[in-house]
Specification:
This is Gfo/Idh/MocA family protein. This protein has 2 domains: 123 residues, 3-Layer(aba) Sandwich (Rossmann fold); 178 residues, 2-Layer Sandwich (Dihydrodipicolinate Reductase, domain 2), CATH 3.30.360. The protein contains 9 helices and 15 strands. Strand 13 and strand 14 form a beta hairpin. The N and C termini lie far apart (49 Å).
Length: 328
């Protein structure tokens, strides 16, 4: 019988039901054995819908289940640190939805707890597990598009009418930078293999939505005079793209985070479309996580990467609300 990592899920969020749980169930390494909600009826309804064997009516109960190896946490952002640490202290490995916490200090507390307990902690940036990003980094390294001059990233969608959504609760970690801005930020750090030195962000702060940033546009200053320009939003037409601009060419990733996984390279030799296997990124994420837990791989991303990403997010939020350039 194939070895399986046994997962429990805390919360019945849409991302869990629609993407992550099916991804784990379709993975080579994982099985979802339990789900918890704040009430037993919601947990049982979701468990029945997704063919999950066990349902719990509280978050505390699922952490007592000794047949669970790992916990996935898709709760609202302000609950990420609390329930990640509680799961870690219960001896569970933890995959926490992005952003991993409300700030870098919280993220560091989570990392410290995981190191102390000897369990694996990861932030759920599913897109990073697709092999195309490794291929793109190799193309950059090869010099095919010359020296990198800049990166532009976008992630926008329009959900502004759903004013009761948790994304529009400021104290709960609402806003577009937390929700989707983290994607181009993490992608630039991944592609450049470096950390930004300063950020400047302008944002649409909406009183209708508890004064969260509904749209933000920013620039991240990386070493070597390279910048990421990005925009993110929850009150704009849908798009999710990355463009990497070089002195001799460029790479376009039309579906940088979700959607079609092909990309396009423009160079002195012309245009070429690079066809990719259309893989379930959530399954890849589950497999990477399990193999790291089992020691079969060192893991692509150390937990400290999440702390580094949150330092940038902290600076972006500070810049957006103060309308100033912020050094990191």
């Amino acid at each position: 019988m194939t070895r399986k990592l046994r997962w429990g899920v805390i919360g019945c969020a849409g991302i869990a039901i629609g993407s992550v749980i099916p991804g784990i169930q379709q993975s080579e390494t994982g099985e979802v054995v339990a789900i918890a909600s704040r009430g037993i009826s919601k947990a049982e309804e979701t468990a029945a819908k997704l063919n999950i064997p066990k349902a719990y009516g509280s978050y505390e109960e699922i952490l007592l289940d000794q047949e669970i190896d790992a916990i996935y946490i898709p709760l609202p952002n302000h609950l990420h640190m609390e329930w990640s640490i509680r799961a870690i202290e219960a001896g569970k490995h933890v995959l926490c939805e992005k952003p991993i916490a409300l700030n870098a200090q919280e993220a560091q507390r989570m990392v410290d707890a995981s190191r102390k307990a000897g369990v694996h902690l990861a932030e759920a940036f599913m897109y990073r597990n697709h092999p195309r990003y490794g291929e793109i980094k190799e193309i950059i390294k090869s010099g095919e598009i010359g020296e990198i001059r800049g990166i532009h990233g976008t992630f926008t969608f329009n959900n502004a009418g759903a004013k009761g959504n948790v994304r529009y609760r400021k104290e709960w970690g609402g806003g577009s930078i937390y929700d989707v801005g983290v994607y181009p930020i993490s992608a630039a750090r991944l592609l450049l293999g470096a950390e930004p030195e300063a950020v400047t962000v302008h944002a649409l702060i909406s009183p209708e939505h508890d004064n969260v940033d509904m749209m933000a546009s920013g620039i991240l200053e990386f070493p070597g005079n390279i910048a990421l320009t990005f925009d993110c939003g929850m009150w704009a037409a849908f798009r999710n793209t990355v463009e990497i601009l070089g002195t001799e060419g460029r790479i376009e990733i039309p579906g940088a985070f979700v959607g079609n996984q092909d990309f396009i390279v423009y160079s002195k030799d012309g245009k070429r479309e690079v066809t990719q296997p259309q893989l379930n990124q959530y399954s890849l994420q589950a497999d990477e996580f399990a193999r790291t837990v089992w020691g079969e791989t060192a893991g692509k991303f150390a937990p400290e990467d999440a702390v580094a990403n949150m330092k940038v997010v902290d600076a972006c939020l500070k810049s957006a609300y103060s309308r100033t350039r912020v050094l990191i």
